[in-house]
Input
Amino acid sequence: MKPVKVGICGLGTVGGGTFNVLSRNAQEIARRAGREVIITQVACRRDNPNCDTSGTAVTRDVFDVARNPEVDIVVELIGGYEVAKELVLEAIKHGKHVVTANKALIAVHGNEIFAAAKAAGVTVSFEAAVAGGIPIIKTLREGLASNRIQWLAGIINGTGNFILTEMRDKGRAFEDVLKEAQALGYAEADPTFDVEGIDAAHKLTILSSIAYGIPLQFDKCFTEGITKIAREDVEYAEELGYRIKHLGISRRYANGIDLRVHPTLIPERNMIAKVDGVLNAVMTCGDAVGTTLSCGRGAGAEPTASSVIADIVDLVRSFDMPAHARVQALAFSELSDYRILPIEEVSSAYYLRMAAVDKAGVLAKIATILSEKGISIEALIQKEPAADATTAPVIMLTQQVQEKTMNEAISAIEALDVIQGKVTRIRVEQLN
Amino acid sequence: MKPVKVGICGLGTVGGGTFNVLSRNAQEIARRAGREVIITQVACRRDNPNCDTSGTAVTRDVFDVARNPEVDIVVELIGGYEVAKELVLEAIKHGKHVVTANKALIAVHGNEIFAAAKAAGVTVSFEAAVAGGIPIIKTLREGLASNRIQWLAGIINGTGNFILTEMRDKGRAFEDVLKEAQALGYAEADPTFDVEGIDAAHKLTILSSIAYGIPLQFDKCFTEGITKIAREDVEYAEELGYRIKHLGISRRYANGIDLRVHPTLIPERNMIAKVDGVLNAVMTCGDAVGTTLSCGRGAGAEPTASSVIADIVDLVRSFDMPAHARVQALAFSELSDYRILPIEEVSSAYYLRMAAVDKAGVLAKIATILSEKGISIEALIQKEPAADATTAPVIMLTQQVQEKTMNEAISAIEALDVIQGKVTRIRVEQLN
Output
């Protein structure tokens, strides 16, 4: 069999990892793929000192790879939106299959890219775009193909999980841990994508499309970051038997699907509550299989390369397959038009924390507001005021209620003269 | 596209589940597979009251299905060795692809079956044979295709895990929990396969072949059950910061691969130590991806059906593929002849428990024997003798040492006149 020729665009962390793993494990990969996979060309702005490219053609222009008639598969690892999109479309135009690790690109421009690929009869693969080395795209598209997926939930941003883990384990403050994460190279200099949940929203958008067979709709994903999580919330959650994790969650309802990224209280006995540090994990619930969990490294050079190369091997197999038989980009041959529910229509249980003036009757006022809205209180902690404080923290867990109703209740509570400042609200999920 | 026609042999728990999920989710499955999948014939000794087979041809002879010219894929769910083997070979002879959930069949007769399938140009798929609904075969064969797998470890028998979990959580004795597991239908009337580790050894044999690309060698798998685990061992393990799990473990060394099923102490902080009840979980370590864990239901009608049908969908895709491009049964186009190490050559850390006569100098004698063998003690618990006892339990964790050396040390310790009865030995793994 003729070897398959790969062109790698971008030789940064993931590009370098892909180059090295493809070189190091060439023999095992060929024994699995049934054909040799060789790197024909590499495009990078600068050399990667960890990669020995002396035997490989190197160009500074990524478009050289997209147009190289020798290349069968273009691997896009340059990141970002604009040039990456242009590059992928150019590769498709030249009849190349594409492998990418670019979640932002797929979440935002995926519909357009998949349409172009379908028209050209090529495949765009993106296992590495979600949860790094965990083959969760494959699991959802193929491993659970017989299931009607009911919901999924994932820790899909390692930086955020590292920060929350440190806050819990060591009682540290958010800002403090963020600085360390940046020093360790986990978080970018501009950490917005990680801590504001944008990166997780990209990944959740992709996972949900595949799970339910719906178009990518990143703009409809509700996104809340972890920047407002206080150390005391982590501690109170613990006192109530919960952990706080930054989750991407989506669920199928009779009237639509929700897509949301936010900090979430999860019972500490739940497996995903125990996924700590930079690890990623995705839980899925299918009607046949029940709940499954996959856990592993969600980022880093070689874990991500592991998924990039798995895609390459799958592509090699599909070369001789008719297009109709190939796995569809978003898992389904025809997509559904389920409505994406606005967060106001989503129901959830809630953790609430507020500062109440230390007076008789305060709790009665709060309880009356909740009761009038039909919201039941599941658990309550009322602390004594600290020595120098005039307010005492009141913490409660509510039963499930629609976000819209909770918003009204919170507004009413905040309007009470015995409540100081804003009410902190964190959603609660059981995930079982 | 023409529908794909499936014949189901066996309509027990898994057969019934497969029949029902294929019927219930027919539309979603067709949207994923790109073709309709229909059940053309069912063979069963007796009807399953949970399945409405009124619209399906039913035969009492499974060989009717294997020979039915209308059937594309034969699904073998009758279990056992002899008839199942005959059935699968007959189906292959008639040019059918086969899907089976039969771990015993694959572990023991897989090499012969795969050779026959290769010669006939058909595929035998067996995702459901290991870890029920968890798509671990697909993960190893495809999702981690770029990795050199270093080791794997799994909780791959739900009954055993249920028993050990109950022993720990409720301080119950082995025999007592086994009776309950039988009453709940988790354990067979003859529980030997579960509690003696034979079922786990079947599954480990299959996983290891796929991980390292070696022929199936069930007869070389070292197997030790959980029947000798005492409640006190569970408690002492806990005191030392460990959990006892019944694991299948295999690892790649410079001079071969080990294959072993035995009770194992694992640090309680390890994710797999937290997998409780009837759940299954498999950890794998690849050189690129690092350690990953997949967890879910390892048995039951619909979780197992989930994997059976995933195999069917994969087969549907591969119909138009040339044989060389298909995923190989044991992942690799050519198998390796790594030596399977006998347990005596395997190194492990150990938990030891012994009953020592309550006299001065006992510990010195034990320590001297271990020291002469070059075995270091990592941790030690010496308890006071119970009120009515003349001996006191001594518990220790050792550093890593070859099994052969540990056997010699244990013999020497048992020969001491201050030691009563046998030394209990449980292997210890860190799995990180």
User: Anything to note?
Assistant: The first helix of chain B runs from residue 13 to 24. Chain B is about 35% helix and 25% strand. Chain B has three domains: 4-133+301-325, 136-297, 347-428.
